[in-house]
Design a protein that fits this description.
The protein is an alpha/beta fold. It is built from 23 helices and 26 strands. The strands form 6 sheets. It has an 8-stranded parallel sheet. A 6-stranded mixed sheet has the order 11-16-15-14-12-13, sandwiched between helices. Bound molecules: 1-deoxynojirimycin (NOJ). The site of 1-deoxynojirimycin has 7 residues, from loops.
Length: 763
């Protein structure tokens, strides 16, 4: 009786039932339900489920609906809003088996409300802030009739020439893994089936951030221990947090493209990690196996990809064209096809689409009047996270915070740049919603001080670069140059500066400069902007440089010119308000760098947790046959974990609860942190561990934990970290994850360089 009514309920919910046959197992039983569905499918319908297409304005809608109704498409990306997606889902409901479509999009750091780019999110070192980004993005994306996002992007980036450094969470394994996990949980909520959740597809598996020379799409060559210790954990953390899918990287790994890499996709991902979700190729990646030189032709490419375990092909026709022949010839087995289909259907099941194909599309009478309306935005959340993402790099003579009564000259090509404020991969963010720095400052000082604005320079004086950036695949031209000669622009800015008490110059990169396919060979602020800075400096007025950029820049020269330096990344819809909050002291900056800032491009790769070596450099002793460049200091310009506040903080009395750690026990490291300044503020206490002597050379230090805390002026608090065997484990030369007995150093600091140290022994 009970069984019958459950079945009836299930059948009712399956909205005209994906599987109409009376023998269909109940929807509650995922595996049986999917197996039964597969048993009903024709080969063409199965292959159709593996096809993920990009919806672009050029694609005839009628044709797409026909294809869907014929069971030849499994999902789309780039189409959003209920009125757009509903007709496609209706078409799926007209297909023979009524298998629902899913709708995906790159909702990376926001959907309508744009939050700071990945690096900015990471600079908050604040998992509540990160969760706010993911949750808000999911709510807005789900309301845009989206089921899935191609995020989080957890590629470790240690070569800032790579434009996609902007999208990730920096150079550190632990911090990136933490953020990746928080994002997955926030996107998916308690279940990816919830109407306000979207499924997370972690990307780009694997090692995409390690492309040689930082040149996008280039090859990756890496030792296995480095891979396992530094690069793979964030993907695994996202998967352990429940990410429903994995997007496969475009690069090769030690000679084998990820898309055809059976070791990576089967041995590591499925067998070692137990991943059960869907895998999706990156754009056109199956076809690219031919250009990688591992497939003779399309047929071989399709075969390699499906055998490697690539379930869905993104905007690639090869599965459709080649799988029938491959199956017929027995080169691909029915079981291999069924497995890929099972995973796609499993993801749809997990997104709640079999239960209700319209779970996020909703009913037509509930469609929004204006999907682009102001009322869709979550501005408070965006401002809160944006403020937390800003990193104060310099503040000489307490130039900041500024007085709201001052006359401020606001200059620079990025001072009034609504498109750039959003950063790359800004989903459906709209520039007209962006608060620029100009607008943020104007609002902040309204009725008090005075703002004099002059552009001062274009982003770059290099026409070829402008053409390149405008050619990139964005909806509108990214860079609209002021046609006046550079000298005229500078002259206007200098005049503005001369009338002012202080100059705020917003300089750096346009968003397209830190994007997919936007690798650079230099990390400098473009020359024409430097000429502007030089002219502003010559006025003798206090100079505040506000940086907008999606990668560490080598700003040694700028640091000398500036009285204050604020790193703002691309801060999103509320960026201008957030920057004003910090410039005027309405918010005390608390961001810390999630990535090292090198002095020059020649130092790359430069990251704090490099492996120990036999001849380390000794500061102050040049020419002593140690590892160094003779023409530049060894260290970074700004280290990982660094960032100032309007307050000052002091650490003291690092103590361990013991000097021996037994396996299974924990050791406590405690330290007193005191706000020695005059204003309340937050800081991040960072715990690093060094394996003093091991079977392999280990990093000089590795981040193992951190705590962000707010302290009133004069307030002191003890921060305690637990250290256990888990924190000491690493993959050794045989790829066994071990904690080796012996000495360890514990380092605690407010950045990765200025640390206090204690040691203990693991028994
Ligand atoms: C290519 C990019 O590499 C990937 O990150 C993105 O998700 C897809 N295109 C879809 O837009």
């Amino acid at each position: 009786m009970m069984k019958l009514s459950l079945l009836g309920l299930a059948m009712g919910l399956v909205s005209q039932a994906a599987v109409a046959a009376t023998s269909a197992p109940p929807l509650e039983n995922k595996q049986a339900f999917i197996d039964h569905l597969i048993s009903q499918m024709t080969e063409a319908e199965k292959i159709g489920q593996l096809r993920l297409i990009s919806i672009s304005p050029e694609m005839p809608r009628e044709k797409i609906r026909e294809e869907i109704a014929a069971g030849r498409i499994g999902g789309t990306f780039n189409s959003r809003t209920a009125p757009e997606n509903r007709p496609m889902q209706d078409a799926a409901m007209r297909s023979r088996l009524k298998i629902p479509m899913f709708f995906a999009y790159d909702t990376v750091h926001g959907e309508r409300t744009i939050f700071p780019i990945g690096l900015g999110m990471a600079a908050t070192w604040d998992m509540n802030a990160v969760a706010k980004v993911g949750r808000t993005a999911a709510i807005e994306a789900a309301a845009d009739a989206l089921d899935m996002t191609f995020a989080p992007m957890v590629d470790i980036a240690r070569d800032p020439r790579w434009g996609r450094t902007s999208e990730g969470f920096g150079e550190d394994t632990y911090l990136t893994a933490k953020i990746g996990q928080a994002m997955v949980r926030a996107f998916q909520g308690s279940s990816p089936a919830n109407p306000d959740s979207i499924m997370a597809i972690v990307k780009h598996f694997a090692l995409y951030g390690a492309v040689e020379g930082g040149r996008d799409y280039n090859t990756v060559d890496m030792s296995l221990p480095k891979m396992y210790n530094d690069y793979l954990p964030p993907y695994r953390a996202a998967i352990d947090a429940g990410a429903g899918g994995v997007m496969v990287a475009l690069n090769s790994i030690n000679g084998v493209p990820a898309t055809s890499n059976t070791w990576l996709m089967n041995d590591v991902l499925r067998k070692e990690w137990g991943f059960k979700g869907v895998t999706i190729s990156d754009h056109g990646a199956i076809q690219e196996l031919i250009r990688h030189g591992v497939a003779r032709d399309g047929r071989e490419a399709a075969k390699l990809a499906i055998k490697a375990g690539i379930d869905m092909s993104m905007n690639d026709t090869l599965y459709g064209e080649e799988l029938p022949g491959l199956l017929k010839a027995g080169d691909v087995s029915q079981a291999e096809l069924d497995q890929a289909v099972r995973e796609v259907l499993g993801a749809k099941y997990d997104m709640g689409l079999f239960k209700n194909p319209y779970v996020r599309i909703g009913a037509a009478q509930n469609d929004l009047k204006d999907y682009y309306g102001e009322d869709r935005l979550h501005r408070d959340a965006a401002r809160d996270v944006a403020r937390r993402s800003l990193v104060l790099l310099e503040n000489r003579r307490q130039t900041l915070p500024l007085s709201k009564d001052a006359t401020i000259a606001l200059v620079g090509p990025l001072a009034d740049a609504p498109i750039d404020m959003m950063g790359s991969w800004a989903a459906d963010g709209r520039p007209n919603h962006s608060v620029t720095v100009r607008e943020g400052l104007r609002r902040a000082i309204e009725g008090k001080g005075k703002l004099v604005y002059a552009k001062g320079s274009n982003v770059t004086g290099d026409k070829a670069i402008v053409d390149y950036l405008n050619f990139l695949d964005f909806d509108a031209p990214q860079i609209v140059d002021d046609p006046r000669p550079p000298a005229v622009l500078i002259d206007e800015a200098v005049k503005a500066a001369q009338q002012a008490d202080v100059v705020v110059a917003v300089v750096g990169e346009s968003r397209g400069m830190s994007h997919e396919s936007s690798s650079r060979t230099t990390l400098q602020v473009p020359a024409n902007q430097r000429a502007l800075i030089e002219a502003l400096k010559a006025t003798g007025k206090p100079l505040v440089l506000v940086l907008m950029n999606g990668r560490p820049l080598s700003i040694g020269w700028e640091r000398e010119q500036a009285d204050a330096l604020l790193e703002t990344w691309f801060a999103g819809t509320e960026g201008g308000n957030a920057i004003a909050d910090v410039l005027f002291g309405d918010y005390n900056p608390s961001g810390k760098l999630p990535i090292t800032f090198p002095r020059s491009v020649g130092q790359i790769p430069m990251y704090y947790n490099h492996t120990r070596i036999g001849r380390p450099f000794t500061p102050g002793k040049p020419g002593n046959y140690t590892s160094q460049y003779f023409d530049e200091p060894n260290g970074p310009l700004y280290p990982f974990g660094y960032g100032l506040s309007y307050s000052t903080f002091e650490l003291s009395g690092l103590a361990l609860s013991g000097n021996k750690l037994k396996r299974g026990d924990t050791l406590q490291a405690s330290v007193v942190v005191r706000n020695t300044g005059k204003v309340a503020g937050e800081t991040v206490v960072q715990l690093y561990v060094q394996d003093a002597s091991a079977s392999m050379s280990r990093p000089v230090k590795e981040l193992k934990n951190f705590q962000k805390l707010m302290l009133k002026p004069g307030e002191a608090r003890t921060v305690t970290f637990n250290i256990s065997e888990e924190d000491l484990k690493f993959y050794n030369g045989q790829l066994q994850r071990v904690a080796e007995p012996g000495a360890f150093n514990v380092q605690v600091g407010l950045d990765s360089e200025a640390v206090q140290q204690q040691d203990f022994e693991l028994l």
